[in-house]
Design a protein that fits this description.
about 425 residues; alpha+beta; about 20% helix; 10 helices; single chain; 6-stranded mixed β-sheet; globular; 18 strands; about 25% strand
C-alpha cells in the first residue's frame, strides 16, 4: 500500500512537498483506515485522501507526479536516447530551479516491509535512481544507480539488501541501459520477491491528471482484459445512478457511430454503445455523443475505480467531482472505505472543490494546496493546524477560511474600475 509521495522542484513545487497516506492514532472512522503490522508494530494506512485548493494552486501536480512516475517506470526501456526522460518539468519561475533536476520519491508498505523508490532527473537522463527498504528505524540500500557529477560516469552499487530480495540481474546495467532507462523498469518485471510487487503497484496505478495522461495505458480495463465482471459492475453503478442505462456494448458495426466522430471525450475511440430502456421492453442503443458530460465522466471513472477495487490498486484522480452529482461523488469515495467493496485495500487520492465530501473523512485524509507570493505551491494537511480534531466540522471551517487555500478573487470594483470615470491601471 502507498504510504508517501515526496517531490521536489517538480512543476509548481520548488521546495520539497510530502503527501502521506499514514493515519494518526486517533480512533475515529476506523473503516477509513487499514491496520497492519510493520516489524511487530501497528501501522495505520488511509484508504482515501483528498486535496483541496483554488485553481492553479498545485493540486493537479501531485496527481501528475504519480502519473509521471507510473509512466516512466512502465515505459522507460522503450525510450530512445534522443527522447530524454519525457517527464522533466522543473519549477520555472526561478532561474536556478529551472535548470536543476526534479525529484520524485514513492514509499510503500509491502508484505510488512517498507520500500522507498526515488528518481532524480533532468530533460536528458535519470541522474540518480535508488531503491531501499526499512528495517525498523534503519534504512537499508537495495541498489543505487547514479551519474557521478565529476566523472560523468554512471555508478551501480548493490546494497546490503540486494541479495535478500532475490533480484535476478546477470547483465551489467551500464551495458544494457541507456541514461534515460530505469533499472527498476528492467528488474521489476522479473518477479523478484517484493521488488516485483513494488514495481507492479506503481505501474498499475490508475492515474488521471486533468488534461490527459502521458500514455493511454489505463483505459477501459473491462475491454482491454475482456473482463465481464468489471463491465457488469460498471453497468450496475450506472444503473444505481439512475441514468437509464441497462447495458454497455462494444461497437461491432463501424457505421453505428458515424455521428460520434467529432466527440473529444476519450471514449469514442473505444467504440461503445449505451443501451437505454424505455417504456415496456423498448431498448435503444446510443453512441457517446448522445450522452451527457456527466454520464461519460462517470462511465470513465467507474471503469477505473471498479477495476482498482478488484485489483487492490492506487487511484489518483484529478478534479474528480467535475460534472458528477455530489451524492454520487460521495458514493464513489465510500466504495474505498467499505470492506465489502474494497477487500484488497485499494486506495484513492483525488482533488476536488466539493467540501461536503469530507463529512465522512478524518482530518488526516484532508489536504490543501496553495501558492505563495513567489508562485510556489505548498502542500499541507488539515491535521497541521492547532486545535483540529480528527473529526471536525470541516466544511464550515474551510468555507470560513480557517485552512486558507481558498480562491482569492479580485474585488468586483477593481475589475470594473474603468466605470464611473475611473481610469484603467
Amino acid at each position: 500500500m502507498m504510504l508517501e509521495l515526496r517531490i521536489k522542484n517538480f512543476k509548481s513545487y520548488k521546495d520539497e512537498a510530502i503527501f502521506s497516506f499514514e493515519a494518526r492514532s486517533e480512533k475515529a472512522l476506523e473503516d477509513n483506515v487499514v491496520i497492519t503490522k510493520f516489524h511487530n508494530e501497528e501501522k495505520r494506512i488511509l484508504k482515501s485522501a483528498c486535496i483541496f485548493g483554488p485553481n492553479a494552486a498545485g493540486k493537479s501536480n501531485i496527481i501528475w507526479a504519480l502519473d509521471s512516475l507510473s509512466f516512466v517506470l512502465n515505459s522507460s526501456l522503450n525510450f530512445t536516447p534522443l527522447q530524454g526522460t519525457l517527464i522533466y518539468a522543473p519549477f520555472a519561475l526561478n532561474q536556478t530551479s529551472s535548470k536543476r533536476e526534479c525529484l520524485i520519491s514513492y514509499k510503500s508498505l509491502i508484505n510488512g516491509e517498507i520500500y522507498i523508490y526515488t528518481i532524480e532527473f533532468n530533460s536528458l537522463q535519470f541522474t540518480k535512481e535508488t531503491l531501499s527498504k526499512k528495517n525498523g528505524d534503519k534504512e537499508s540500500l537495495i541498489y543505487s544507480f547514479s551519474i557521478d557529477k565529476i566523472s560523468k560516469n554512471r555508478k551501480f552499487i548493490k546494497g546490503k539488501a540486494w541479495n535478500t530480495e532475490g533480484i535476478f540481474l546477470l547483465e551489467d546495467p551500464n551495458k544494457v541501459l541507456n541514461e534515460n532507462h530505469l533499472l527498476l523498469s528492467l528488474i521489476g518485471r522479473r518477479k523478484s520477491k517484493n521488488v516485483f510487487l513494488l514495481y507492479n503497484e506503481i505501474v498499475s496505478m490508475e492515474t488521471e491528471p486533468f488534461g490527459g495522461s502521458l500514455a493511454d495505458i489505463h483505459n477501459m480495463h473491462f475491454v482491454r482484459h475482456n473482463d465481464s465482471m468489471i463491465k457488469e459492475r460498471v453497468v450496475k453503478l450506472l444503473n444505481v445512478a439512475d441514468l437509464g442505462i441497462v447495458n454497455i456494448l462494444e461497437k461491432k458495426d463501424k457505421s453505428e457511430l458515424k455521428e460520434n466522430q467529432n466527440v473529444n471525450d476519450g471514449i469514442n475511440d473505444q467504440e461503445f454503445l449505451f443501451v437505454h430502456k424505455g417504456k415496456g421492453r423498448v431498448e435503444k442503443k446510443f453512441p457517446p455523443s448522445n450522452e451527457s458530460v456527466g454520464t461519460l465522466k462517470l462511465f470513465k471513472i467507474a471503469s477505473r475505480i471498479l477495476y482498482a477495487l478488484e485489483a487492490g490498486s492506487v487511484v489518483a484522480y484529478d478534479e474528480m467531482d467535475m460534472a458528477i452529482h455530489p451524492d454520487l461523488f460521495k458514493l464513489l469515495i465510500q466504495l474505498f472505505n467499505n470492506s465489502r467493496s474494497n477487500p484488497r485495500n485499494a486506495q484513492i487520492l483525488f482533488t476536488c472543490h466539493t467540501p461536503s465530501i469530507c463529512e465522512n473523512m478524518r482530518a488526516d485524509q484532508i489536504w490543501f494546496a496553495q501558492k505563495n507570493s513567489s508562485g510556489e505551491s505548498e502542500l499541507y494537511s488539515a491535521q497541521d493546524f492547532e486545535g483540529v480534531s480528527i473529526t471536525m466540522p470541516f466544511e464550515n471551517w474551510y468555507r470560513n477560511g480557517k485552512f486558507g487555500s481558498l480562491p482569492d478573487f479580485k474585488a468586483i470594483d477593481y475589475i470594473f474600475e474603468d466605470r464611473n470615470g475611473a481610469s484603467k491601471t
